[in-house]
Write a structure and sequence with these properties.
alpha/beta, Rossmann fold, five-stranded parallel beta sheet, binds cytidine-5'-monophosphate
Length: 219
C-alpha cells in the first residue's frame, strides 16, 4: 500500500481521550514528520460560529466557516476549551463542512515527505491509502478518568460522571453519523490503551509502525 511517491502517511483514528492525540504528536516527533490534529479543524469551525454568535446547525454558514480555516493558524490552547469539543461534534455531522475540511487535510497529507494525521476518519476517508493505520481506543471509563484528571489539573470543576456522559454523547454522535462515522479501517492496527500509560502505548505504536515500514521496504 502506498499513497503517493515521496509521501509517507501515518493515519491515527480513535474516540475522544483514547490517547491518539498525544501518541500522534510523539510519533510525528519520533519519525520527523509534520503532524495535523484534524480535530482542531472541526473545533476551529465551531469556535468561529460561537464567537460570531451564529447557530451551530446551519450547514451553509458552517461550510463557509470551514472553507476559511487556515491549517497554519490552529491555536491548540484556544481550541481545547471544554465546551468546544461538543460543538465541534455537532458541526462535524454536516457533509459540506467535512468536504471543505477533508480537502485541506488531504493536501496536508499529500505534501512530501508526508505526515501523521489524527482524527476520526483518517484511515477510512481522508487517507484511505495511508501507509500505516492505527485505531487507538480505550474503555469509556478509562477515557473519562484521563480527561477528568486533565480538567482538574487545568482548574476545571466538572465531575467524573459529567465527563463520562459527555464522552458517551460524543462517541454516539461520532459513531452514529451518516457521513464518515468513527470506525476502524479494515486494515487498521488496533491499539487498546485502557491498561497502558502513554510510554507503553508509544512503544507499542512504534513497534507496529516499524514493522509496517520494514514490510513496505521488502514488498
Ligand atoms: O479530536 P477532537 O476531540 O479534538 O475532535 C473534536 C470533534 O471533531 C470530534 O468529537 C468529532 O466530532 C470531530 N472530528 C471529526 N473528524 C475528525 C476529527 C474530529 O468528525 N477527523
Amino acid at each position: 500500500m502506498k499513497s503517493l511517491p515521496n509521501c509517507y502517511v501515518i493515519a491515527i483514528d480513535g474516540p475522544a481521550a483514547s490517547g491518539k492525540g498525544t501518541l500522534a504528536r510523539l510519533i510525528a516527533e519520533h519519525y520527523g514528520f509534520p503532524h495535523l490534529d484534524t480535530g482542531l479543524t472541526y473545533r476551529a469551525v465551531a469556535r468561529t460560529l460561537v464567537i460570531e454568535d451564529l447557530p451551530l446547525d446551519n450547514e451553509e454558514l458552517a461550510a463557509h466557516a470551514a472553507a476559511n480555516i487556515d491549517l497554519a493558524h490552529l491555536d491548540r490552547d484556544l481550541l481545547s476549551a471544554y465546551g468546544i469539543a461538543d460543538a465541534a461534534s455537532q458541526v462535524a455531522v454536516m457533509p459540506a463542512v467535512r468536504r471543505a475540511l477533508v480537502e485541506k487535510q488531504r493536501a496536508f497529507a499529500e505534501t512530501p515527505p508526508g505526515a501523521v494525521l489524527d482524527g476520526r476518519d483518517i484511515g477510512t476517508v481522508v487517507c484511505p491509502d495511508a501507509d500505516v493505520k492505527l485505531y487507538v481506543t480505550a474503555s469509556p471509563q478509562a477515557r473519562a478518568e484521563r480527561r477528568h484528571a486533565e480538567i482538574l489539573e487545568a482548574g476545571g470543576s466538572e465531575s467524573l460522571s459529567e465527563v463520562l456522559a459527555g464522552i458517551r454523547r460524543r462517541d454516539e454522535r461520532d459513531m452514529g453519523r451518516a457521513d464518515s462515522p468513527l470506525k476502524p479501517a479494515e486494515d487498521a492496527h488496533l491499539l487498546d490503551t485502557s491498561e497502558m500509560d502513554i510510554e507503553t502505548a508509544f512503544r507499542a505504536a512504534i513497534s507496529i509502525i516499524d514493522a509496517a515500514r520494514a514490510a513496505g521496504q521488502h514488498s
